[in-house]
Amino acid sequence: MVSVGQLRDAEEQVARQLQQAGWTITLPPPNTTGYDFEASKAREVIAVQVKSHKTPVKVPQVERFLDFFDLPISRRFTRGLLVSLSGFTHNALTYFSNVNSTRVRLAVVKEGTVHWIRFNDKQPLPESNELVYVGVFTCKGGVGKTTISAHLAGAIALSGYNVAIIDLDPQKNLTTLLEGGVLVPGVGKEPPRSLKVFRLDEWDDTQPPPGIKLAVCDCSPVFEENPVHLVEKFTYCIIPTTLNPLGLNKNGYVIKNTLREIRSVNKNAYIFVLINNYFKDEAHKAQVIKEQYKKYFLKLSEQEPRFQFIDPDDAAIRNSKQLFYWGYHIYSGEKPELAFTTIGGKCAPKADFLNLLDYLEEHSDISQFKTAENLELEMY
Question: What is the topology classification, in CATH, of domain 4-123?
Answer without folding.
Answer: Trna Endonuclease; Chain: A, domain 1 (3.40.1350)
